[in-house]
From TrEMBL:
Taxonomic superkingdom: Bacteria
Species of the source: Pseudoruegeria aquimaris
Protein name, as recorded: DUF4386 domain-containing protein
Residues annotated as transmembrane: 6-32, 44-75, 95-114, 169-190, 196-216
Keywords: Membrane, Transmembrane, Transmembrane helix
UniProt KW Transmembrane helix keyword: yes
Amino acid sequence: MTLQTAGGACALICAATYIVGFALLTTLLAPLDYGSARVEAEKIVAFIATNGGLLITWNAIIYLANALSLAVLVVSLASRLSPRAPGWASVTHGFGLIWAALVLAAGMIANVTVERVAAIQGSDPLAAAALWDVLHQVELGLGGGNEIAGGVWIACVAVAGRRARALPLGLCGAGLVTGASGLATLWPAIGDAAGALFGLGAIAWFIAIGLVLLTGDQPRTDAGR
């Protein structure tokens, strides 16, 4: 398996983690208003008491599996862009690994939070609720509640892909739109809508990138033509 093929497979895995995340968020986790500003710590603590394993699985998929796959995709794309746009390839490499690290950290904190809350909720449910509320904010700050790092990376890949002529024009345009929606999560008034748009756009973008890497040829340098 080449690095490009591995990157393509990991892009599809990233898309799958988003799809699974949305599916659980709108079904099994829907009664909790999980992921919205209306979520109540007490409801989460009660849910963890009987369904903590579900939250740990969800965190493992949307954070851990996503971050590890994303890291491989980042390196693969940087390698694809490097022959014709080495500077931009380095920029995408840096921003991409920053995003992957933030997502991984958010996932580890989220799962430790679930485990700790489960351990103390029986004896002190109020303390458990307070603990979840505080650590959940840390999780959201790292990567669950904003998409700034992801938006910057996808936008940079779009710019680099166009300059290097290494990615289709339509895919680069979609990347700019998706990246802009990620940056828009910076503003609270439109944060939820922008986050949903980013998530849906990222699913399509990851799938398209995956297909390009799995089926496309590696671009050559101009000197090699």
